[in-house]
Structure of Filamentous hemagglutinin:
Amino acid sequence: MTDTHQVLIVGGGTGGLTVASQLLSRDDAPEVAVLEPADTHYYQPLWTLIGGGVFDKEESARPMGEVMPSGATWIQDAAAEVDPEGGTVTTRGGDTHGYDRLVMAAGIQIDWDGIPGLAASVGQPGTGVVSNYSYDTCETTWDAIQNFPKGGTALFTEPTTGVKCGGAPQKIMYLSDDAFRRQNVRAGSRIAFMKAKGSLFSSPPYEETLYDVVERKDIDLNLMTELTALEPSKKQATFQHLESGEEETIDYDLIHVVPPMSAPDFIADSPLSDEEGWVDVDPGTLQHTRYDTVFALGDNSNLPTSKTGAAIRKQAPVLVDHLMATTNDAASANGTYSGYTSCPLVTGYGKLVLAEFDYDKEPEESFPFDQTEERYSMYALKAYGLPRMYWNGMLKGRM
């Protein structure tokens, strides 16, 4: 064994760094190590607006060394195996690290190979295949939007699996509609949303607004319809209608693909996982249901809420509270996570619906006005306010 840490955090994304910062800011701060292989940290919520031509992609990136919390030990390697019985994590590099408390914040795995034809074509010139779900490809979405032909067909997909930010698959569609109108290519063109789930959005009050947006923008909505294959050389996409089982092949000029996603393999193959591969935690305390020294938050957990950075903002203090209670042998901790999540639903340039809701999909809102309405103020919050709050507040343990 290389060493043992009081708290070992697997993952240097939003969840991992937020928890590390909050732990280290305490008067009774434990020793903290963060296991993270990447050199760069990304503010991924900005990728939708990068795909829509609002920002350059470089604005979403910072060197990992600059955002790693002061006082944390950065282990620049990736987790390969977790042994909760032995209290160790083994890395791809072959090192084994022990822990007193383990925080799983490894994010979600994007399965680019899950759709035949996707991995080799996404972001490549001439294919029309784009995706905002990668730093390397998000700017190519804007390139494709700018070169969209008059009378063309633009398809936007969402898989059956859980995805990062459940609203992102449709936000870029609304921006594209606005862009096509500005470019005078929307008339006679088709925009279609091919969503493999049965509803437009998970929280009904906000879904009503989105149905109005879809109608206003004349978008062809196809629920229970999943992308199964691409033929980029022909610019054709094959979909399965999940209720009937029938398949349909559609010609496209642009297709924004949200790839299927899953729990990271090393988690799904570990004793920490539930039946679907996610880290199995109590929805109120974020403590593992079987291993008392293990906690999890964010995308790699099985918390029954949307996988968003805003959810982590409310999850992190609860996790820290319960983790430190077990460390200090306290009788109980005070925090309980309600399932709060937020999805800033961009419905066009300068328009946004700020959806905030709990486990029951009921609104849990922050502002004293009707948040189901499209507002410029909420768009400005997403575009200009939230990134600053993220870099200067959340990652530093101040929120």
About this structure: The chain has a mean pLDDT of 96. The domain at 111-260 is CATH 3.50.50.60 (FAD/NAD(P)-binding domain).
